[in-house]
Inverse folding.
DNA sequence: CTTGACCTTCCCATAACTGGAACCCCTATG
DNA sequence: CATAGGGGTTCCAGTTATGGGAAGGTCAAG
């Protein structure tokens, strides 16, 4: 199938798929007219990539996961290590964002939000 | 004061401060030897920027907040609107990350993590 | 005088795309 | 048959907010 069809099937933009080819994540065949031809396997790989990216795995993580996915002899522990590491990163991000949110929510709460120039948010941003 | 001192005082890397000058967030004076000279006001602005960035405000948000900070006649509502919008963004991010974490935690949990090639994480990534 | 710590500008690189220009290919229609 | 449209192709540049490093000027101390 051509790039448009695989884009629709996987939900990935064509641009992104070309980019994934550029960096070697997929290697579709070519027709005589230089159009890319995607096999079912290519489409499946792209599906996999889309899901993994949606779960926040980096491209490099995806490359590793894809290699493991294609390796019939992989150990599930290898996959789990990548996923666990990523899980830890996500939890750290959530923690940081939650702190941010709390600080910011305090500032917003303390602000009257009226026409007066006095603003506790700006004061809060000046420093502790 | 020179860039090194202001960097130490604000906790921002000198590189970042030069970048902030580049994009017009601060405009330090220059000495005859072309060294930047930062006033107390410049240092205070950078402090403000550092805090706002640490709370995840984008550079453009910072630019707006800085303008409001310098405007004696601003209405606190203007500031609050920016902060509230950013707060909403942060909460959306937290929500998305939390969903990610839950999905991923399920996958990790279901994986034996041993030497067998059978891996539910990869299966989960293939699609629903 | 030299050493070392500063400072300067300039250019390149990151992650993961996205947009746009300029151009080729194929088919359907007036 | 010309053309309009909707594919496709490559390549180049831009995005965010810096970080790295080269090549070189400046300054205070020993």
């Amino acid at each position: 199938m051509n790039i448009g069809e695989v884009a629709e099937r996987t939900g990935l933009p064509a641009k992104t798929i070309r980019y994934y080819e550029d960096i070697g994540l997929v290697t579709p065949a070519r027709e005589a007219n230089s159009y890319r031809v995607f096999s079912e396997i290519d489409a499946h790989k792209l599906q996999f990539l889309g899901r993994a990216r949606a779960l926040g795995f980096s491209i490099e993580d995806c490359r590793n996961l894809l290699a493991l996915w294609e390796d019939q002899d992989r150990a599930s522990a290898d996959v789990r290590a990548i996923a666990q590491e990523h899980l830890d990163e996500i939890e750290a991000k959530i923690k940081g964002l939650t702190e941010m949110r709390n600080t910011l929510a305090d500032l917003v709460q303390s602000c009257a939000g009226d026409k007066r120039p006095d603003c506790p948010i700006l004061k809060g941003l000046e420093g502790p």
In short: The longest strand of chain A covers residues 29-30. The beta strands of chain A are 29-30, 36-37. Chain A touches chain B through 52 residues (CB under 8 Å).
